[in-house]
Amino acid sequence: MAALDPFYPIVDSAAWVARLVGVGARLIQLRVKDRDEAAVAREAREALKICVAAGATLVVNDHWRIAIGEGAPFVHLGQSDLDGADIAAVRKAGVKLGVSTHDEAELKRALALKPDYVALGPIYPTILKVMAFAPQGLDRIGEWKHRIGAIPLVAIGGLTVERAKLCLAAGADIVSVVTDITLNADPEARARQWIAATRPA
Question: Of residues 26, 96, 100, 190, which has the active-site annotation?
Fold first, then answer.
C-alpha cells in the first residue's frame, strides 16, 4: 500500500470533500452523523467520485456496509463501532481499516485486527465532542508508535497547524483535523497551511 498522506481532514459532506480535495487533500474522511443510511450512502458515493477523480483516498467513518457497497477503499471504526462490525466482510471486500484507540485495552483490541492505521486521541482538549478520555499528550504518541511499529499512527483531537507539527515530531505519521479547518473563516486557505506544514518538502 502506498504511504498515506500526513494531512487527514475529517468532514461531514461530499461538498466539503470537494472543497478540500480541490486544494490538495489526498486523504480525507467522510463522517456523516444523524442522517439515515440512504443519505450517508449518497454522500459517500459522491465523495468517492470526487476522490477517485483527484487521486485521493476516501475513508468512510463508521458505516462499514456502505464502505463495502460503494467500493470505498477505507473504513474508520471507533471502539463502539467495532462491536457490530463484520470485520471479516470488510476484509473480504478489500476495504482497509482504521481504528480509534484511547487506552491500552483499546490498542490491544485494535492490533488484534491488524489495522491499516491506528488513531490515538484526543491529543489535546477538543471542542468537537465530549470525550470520556483525558487529553493524551505528546508523550503518548511516542509510546503508541513504539508499540505499533510500521503501522501508521494518526494523531487526532484539538489539533492546529502548530500542534500538528509537534505531533509529527513526537512520532505520529498522520495528523487529523476537523474544526480547525471547518470552523475557519477561510477553510481552503487553512487547509493549504496544513498541507504546507505536514508534507515533506
Answer: 100
